[in-house]
Structure formats: C-alpha cells, structure tokens
Amino acid sequence: MVEIQQSPDAITVNVHFSRADTTILENDSLQISQETQETKELEEDALPVHVTDRIFFIDLANKQQTTIPLQIFELEDLEELHLEKNLIENIPGDIHRLKKVKVLYLNKNYIHNVCEELGELKYLQSLDLSSNPLSYSSLHIISKLQALRQLRLYDVNLDEFPVEICKCLHHVELLGLSGNNLRYLPKEVVNLRQLKEIYLQKNRFESFPLELCHLLNLEILDLEQNRVSFVPEEIVSLTNLVKLFLAFNNLLSVPDTLHHCRRLTVLDLSNNLLRRLPPSFKQLTEMNELGLSGNNLEKFPRQICHWMSLCLIYLKNTGLQMLPSSFTRLTCIKILDLSENFFDEFPKEICAMENLEILSLDDNQIHEIPPEVTGLSNLKCLGLTGNRFSVFPEEVFLLQSLEKLYLGQDKGIKFMTLPRDISKLQNLKELYLENNCLEYLPPSIGLLSNLEIVDCHNNLLKELPDSICQVQGLQRLLVQNNQLFQLPENLDNLQKLQLVLLDGNPMTDPPVEVCSQGNLAIWEYLREKRHQKAKATKIQAWWRGQMVQKGLGIFAELQKLLKKGKKDKKGKEKGKEKPGKGAKGKK
Predict the structure, then answer these.
(1) Of 132, 139, 77, nearest to 106 (Cα)?
(2) Burial 441-474 (b: 16+ CB within 10 A, else e)
(3) Cα gap 381→358, rounded to integer Å
C-alpha cells in the first residue's frame, strides 16, 4: 500500500508496501466482515436478549468495556469475538465455555495474564493479544491451542519468544512479533514448518535469524527497523518467498543467492548502506514492487530494467542524476519516486510511461519540463516541489488527467503569478503552491469544479478572487502567512469547506479575533455582514426616493428635470389637439 501524504513543503511518498497482516502498520484492529452464515452484530453495549439465538459474530471493540460481559459465555455457537481497544484487565475462567470460538481479538487492553482456561479453546484458530502488558510466565498457555493458525503478539514487551510455543504449535501460518525487544529466535522455531508469514519489525535483531532459512514454506518475511548488517546466503532455501522487507537496517550488501527466490514480487531494501545490487538480480523477473530509497547508490541499478512487471519503484534520496535509456522498457510502472536526488532535467525516459499515475520529483534541480510530458496520459499526481524553476512550468497544463499538483518553491526563484491556464486542469482536486511569492490567484481558478484542496501558505496574497466561491467542492483552504485583510463575502456558501487557515494574515474583514475562533465564527460574520449590507441598501434606496420626490439636496436638479419633462409632455399633447379641432370646424 502506497500512502501519499501532504507535508508542509513537498509531496511525501511513504513506502507502505502491501502486507498481508495490516496490524503491523497500525495497531488498529482488523475489520472483519460478517460471514454469509447467519450472524448478528451487537450495537453499542447491547447483548442478545435471548441466549438461545444463534450468534456467530460479536463486535464489542472500543466500547470502554472493563470486563468481558458474562452473557457472552452463554453463546454456544459463537465463532468470532472482537474485544480489542477496551479496558479489560483479566480474561475470566469462563472463557472455556466458548467451545466453538475460532477468532478472538483482545489486543489493546490491559491484560496481564493468560488464564489456564484459554488453553481449552481447541477450535481457536486466530488469537490477537497485541498491545497488552502480558506476563511472560503465562504465555506458555498459548502452546495448548493446537488448532491455532494465526498468533499476534505485537508490542507486548517480549525479550524472548517462548520455546513451548515453537514446540507445540505445528499448524501456525502467521506469527506476528513486531514491536518487541527480541534479539534472537529460539532454535525450536524451525518446528513451525507450516509458517508462511512472520513479522519481526521493530525489534533488536543484529543478525539475520538463520533459523528462518529452514522454514521452507515462508512467503512473507518482515525484518524492517532492526540492526541487521547481513543476510546469509542460506536464504536461497526460501524458494517460496514472495515478500521480503529489510528496510531500515545496516545492510552493506545482499547475497547473490537471493536471485534463486524466483517467486519474489516485493523487495524493500530502503534506508540501508547499499551501493549496488548483485548482477544476478535481473533474474527476479516476477518483481512487482521495489524499495531502494535512502541508499547511496553508485549508479542506477540496470538490473531493474529486466523486471518487466515492475509497478512500484521507490528511489528517493539515492544520489541519482540520470536514468538509463533502458528504463523505458518498464511500461507497467504506476508509482515512481525519484525525489531528493540530483536530476537537473526532467527525465525524458519517463515521458513514454503511459501507465504512470504517481510521480514524485520533489527536491531535485529541475529547471524546466519538456513538452514530451504530454505522453503521461494517466498521470494523476505530480510532485515538483523544491526544484529550480525560474517561471511557472506551464507544460504541466498538458497533463489533462492530473488530480494532484505539488509546486511549492522553497528553493530557487519564487513564482510571482499562477497562469490563468490553470483552468485547463479540469480534473485537478488538490493544488499545493506554498512558499512562493504569489500576490493573486487568477479568477479562472473558479472554473476548477473538482478542486478540493488549495494550499497557498507562505505567499504574498493580498486577496482571494470572488470566483473561488464557485468551487463548490472545496474542502480545505490553507492561506496562512500571506497579506490577506479580507475574505470573499460569499465564502460561507461553500458548504463542503471544512478548514480555513488564516494565521499570519493582517485580517480586518473578518477581524483577527473572529478568524481565530474558527470556521463557524467566520461564517456567522460573513452572513451578518451580508444582512447588514442588504439592509443598508434598502434604506439607501428609500432615502434616495424621498429626496428625489422632495427635490432636496443634490436631487433638486433632478426634480426640476422631472418637472420640466412633464411640462414638455403636456405641451406636445396640446399641440396635437389644435390641428384636429381646426379640421373639424371646416367640415
């Protein structure tokens, strides 16, 4: 999973590769959908009125529960129970009555001990006790759960993994131990022969656990954010390996033998000490995602150009200055991160990648964009913040599919104007122009009907165009630290506008004290201002009417003209009547 986040100065492409176990990325519990069989989900603190009801699934997550409700233990058919994110301190002995339970989530509570009765749940297949202050001495109970397939013990302050679990649980397929203090795994871990996924992120491993190389069914191996300095050649035995995560370690190299893991599709080696990749890596032709960010590469690893299925490449902060011509072979790429490098030209090798959707070139030394960029017909997100543009690169207007544009200019020459042709980007949803010298936004910005976010903080804006009130989808307007003193009077008509940041502006209309109270206060001010304006207009119109009727003041002359006009009209009417009378007399 690639997560695109907005930072104050640039587009940030975070390397969040897709893992099977999402709990290692965030400790939020998994949201498991209701099975097709007959199930009933509890609302708030509600429990079944009739315990004879056949309940298969109950979700009491995040309900401020201090204990497990006793009524739950009467549900003989219960198969899945969610109690994560509560205040539970103990697992009661009655837990053994849930004889058919298969899935039990108790993560993010305050549980200290695993009770003996938990070991009687002979059908339990998935257990999550993560983020609890568990006593190590009670963990041996878990070894009695012979049917267990998934065990998650993230963030439980483990210094060592219980040997009993390794000896007894022969059917475990997923083992989650991230966020602990492990320095090694017991040699008995080789008994987990059915293990397919192991998550060891954020521990204290200084060497690659050699025991893992004996787990021949392993498909996902995560050792990110440890202190590992080498990978053993024995990794060649893991021929079923599909995803390997080794980011944020101290690797100086990776073994040539890794190329024998031909099923490998995801490899994250970001933020290590690598200078090159083994030449034999070109044989990893199933590769789909690659992370090399944060390694000081000597040159672009050309082996990558043999991976025709590659979709995601992260090469942020790798010291690159150019791409090889063979890079054009990678026609399947959808996400490409080349930020924080030394490109002084927009790489033309990219321009033919019609499947590219996200491109980050932030913090390079690019000074212009070639017209060939029009070949990026599916590009949705473009990051160009922190480059060396002397004028606004209008070539971006050729990218008709663009939805997010990042052009903050914290380096180089600041942009003085935003071209009116910005309206050509009719699919644009997010526009980031922070740290420039813009004094005005063009009225044509009101034509961007899909726009949701405008970020122009740290500029010199003196006013916002009234046309911005036409952008009905606008949700966030970030204009702090400018020269604004007033807002468009109809800004409150934007019903989807959730956030307006005005800090650091010399506001008088609304005044600073109103702006500091947030959106609701601003909207109330604008509505009252319109009401008073409409009222004043009516009074002024009435007053002028009275002055005209009475011929007073500056309206005296107007009154004379009106009277003169009436006299002239009467004179004309009399003149028309006289000829008529003479004609009648002759007859």
Answers:
(1) 132
(2) bbebbbbbeebbbbbbbbbbbeebeebbbbbeeb
(3) 5
The 10 Å Cβ neighbour count of residue 325 is 10
Evaluate whether 279 touches 302 at the Cβ level (below 8 Å). no
Distance (Å, rounded) from C-alpha 57 to C-alpha 38? 9
Structure tokens at 320: 């690159």
Q: Which of 497, 360, 491 is nearest to 432 (CA)?
A: 360
Check: CB of residue 92 under 8 Å from CB of residue 69: no
What are the structure tokens assigned to 40, written together?
A: 């009933």
Judged by DSSP in three states, 407 sits in coil
Secondary structure E strands in 240-280: 243-245, 266-268
DSSP label at residue 472: T
Q: Are 357 and 335 in contact (CB under 8 A)?
A: yes
User: What ranges make up the beta strands (E) of 323-388?
Assistant: 335-337, 358-360, 381-383
**Please, which residues bridge with residue 176 across strands?**
152, 199
Angle at 565 between CA 563 and CA 569, to 5 degrees: 120
Closest residue by Cα to residue 490 from 451, 518, 530: 530
Cβ contact 406:434 at 8 Å:
no
- All residues at 6 or more sequence positions from 517 whose CB lies less than 8 Å from its CB, including other chains: none
Q: CB-based contacts of 104: which residues, under 8 Å, 6+ apart?
A: 80, 81, 83, 121, 124, 126, 127, 128
Whole-model pTM above 0.70? Answer: yes
Give backbone dihedrals phi and psi of 25, rounded to 5 degrees, phi first: -85, -45
Q: What angle do CA 388, 350, 334 make, to 5 degrees?
A: 110
Q: How far apart are CA 229 and CA 284, in angstroms?
A: 23
- CA gap 246, 510 in Å, rounded: 53
Which residues fall within 8 angstroms of residue 30, CB to CB, at 6 or more apart?
22, 23, 105
In tens digits, the chain (587 residues) has pLDDT values of 334 443 434 444 444 555 656 554 343 332 223 232 333 333 344 454 444 568 899 999 999 999 999 999 999 899 999 999 999 999 999 999 999 999 999 999 999 999 999 999 999 999 999 999 999 999 999 999 999 999 999 999 999 999 999 999 999 999 999 999 999 999 999 999 999 999 999 999 999 999 999 999 999 999 999 999 999 999 999 999 999 999 999 999 999 999 999 999 999 999 999 999 999 999 999 999 999 999 999 889 999 999 999 999 999 999 999 999 999 999 999 999 999 999 999 999 999 899 999 999 999 999 999 999 999 999 999 999 999 998 999 999 999 999 999 999 887 789 999 999 999 999 999 999 999 999 999 999 999 999 999 999 999 999 999 999 999 999 999 999 999 999 998 998 999 999 999 999 999 988 989 888 888 888 888 888 877 776 667 667 666 666 666 665 555 565 666 666 655 655 656 555 555 544 444 43
- Residues in the chain, how many? 587
Q: Residue 526: helix, strand or coil by DSSP?
A: helix
DSSP label of 455: E
What angle separates helix 519-550 from helix 556-586, to the nearest 10 degrees? 50
Distances (CA, A) of 141 to 34, 85, 121, 136: 29, 23, 11, 10
Helical spans, DSSP H, in 89-215: 163-168
